[in-house]
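Our working data are protein records whose layout never changes between entries. An example says more than a description, so a record of this kind follows.
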Amino acid sequence: MHELLPHILAQARRGPCPTCGAPLQLAESGREARCNFCGGASTLSYTLRAIEPEAAKLEKARIKGATRWMKKQAAYEPCTCPGCGAEFNADTSQSIQSCKYCGAESKLETRLLPITTDDVAEPQERTRADAENQRRGRIDYPWSISGEQLVWRLLHEPDAGTRVNVASYYNKWIYIDHTAAHFLPWTLRVIQRDVDAVAFMAADVIGKLLCEGDPTLWPGVIQAVRGVVFDANVKPCIVQELALGEGVCVKTLIDAAEYAAGNGVLGQAWPALWGVQTLIGRNFDEHPVIAQIVLYRLFYLNGPVLGWALDALRNSYLRGRYPIEFLLRAIDEIGAERPQIVPHLLECLYIGPAENADEFRKRLSWIREAISWGGKAAAFELLYTPPVDDRALYEEAIDLVDEYLDDPQAGESVETALMRLITNEREHTNPAIDALIVKRGESLNDRVKREYIRRNPQTALLDTSKPYYWQSEPKRALSPELEALVAQWKQGIRDGVDDYRTRMDAARKFRDSVQGEVELFLRDGPATIPLTETAAAEVEKDRKQKQRNAERKQRQPEVDRIQAEMNRVQSEYSQKLMDMSGKMQDSMHDQKAMQDYSAQMMKLAEEMQTRIGALQKELQRLLSHEAE
């Protein structure tokens, strides 16, 4: 739902953020804007729409719908007539365009569109090997392997009880991240089609993403959810989760309620309004922005949702929670597009008398600068007695009162302002007021005349013989029709709350009956995501090292045998040499025996060296494989 931008907002280069509804001030040039409240990016789009039957009949598919972006301060934009297809320069200061070739009239429409992401590819099954590779930094993959596997299991697990336990992984905040936000469109498919027990558990991810203190998550979440909240069969748990976290979903909830009510599905409208009420009741710091969002939804609301919005602005925590200048401007702009709403908004205005002359002049400037009668009426609601007894200030105020007192629409507010100027006067009325009484005389309303006579009982400017009875300030109550709508949505919310709690209790019972631990991954391997080049080289190096270790382990018994044999041979011959050495000592006086023993010892040493040398060669051959 990307509504037309009201012409008065388009001309002022302002508009509600298409993501969250907070008012945006657009730059003088450039196509994109970014919201300071929700972080959503948006872009302006111009279109020409045929408004004459003749042009509508001629409309062709080849005719382009959008114009190029205008350069800074450009007054005209080349575009194509939806009637005859001819190109002409559209004057962007005018909402109605006339083709100089065929004479057909068309309307210049402006939309502020969110900058959306591409469709999200379906999650794939991942393995423990993928998770291990990601943990060790071996893959270049933007999403959490575990988070993607979680969504895949929800999509493909055949057993409802198991799906409940898989969805319970969202109870852990480690799964609340950009991966959960990225694959949220697929999670929403599960929520929409599954039993309530799974839906309630899985929907928990929506609220947690909105409660997470990362504003970069919110636009994607809102975009994904807006893909399902306008479904007549949207699960109430989705709507309720939008009421958690920051107030960035106020617009989405109001739009969902309006869409449901407009299509006769009131049962879906009430949970959405309940969600907005929840956000208003818990996000006190955001009341100024939420109030502004609700104000600018008034361009588009009807029926019970309109009744809810007006009642919220008049009677809820939102009353008075915005800068008065903002409210004035909003009423002025709404008055240009939907003047029938203005009388109900005037009740929202409250401000005390001006503190000094500069502030009083500023209020007078609000009256002069207002575009619509609603804006002027709202500005007159803020007109009180000047803070100083300055005739020039009085004259400025009375001149404006005199100019608009007879206005059929703003006149009531002007008359009330005049009453305040007289009632709050000092000891005597200012000459500027006296001059107005001289000019208007008995044509003034009885309330005004009564108050002036009360202040000036001896005046000759009015007929003092006529009795004037006290009249209280007229109350601006909602019309009976709107009051009925307010009563309708209040009862509807009560019914919606009861239905939601009934379904939630049933879902909780089913969840408790199947609760248990389930493994997220079904397979250990193989890995489904290729490694990076660096990681692949490291893995190959590790593989070779493991292979060498395995071969070393395989050769180790033989190495141990050879080393043991070498030790045995060395020990054996050492013992023989020691024995021979002892015999030599015993035969020190026998020269021939000494020579024989010496020859035998040399022979033993040579034999030992030969046998050990052979064993060393065999050992070296085995160990040489490890160095390869």
About this structure: The first helix runs from residue 7 to 11. The radius of gyration is 43 Å. Residues 550-627 form one domain.
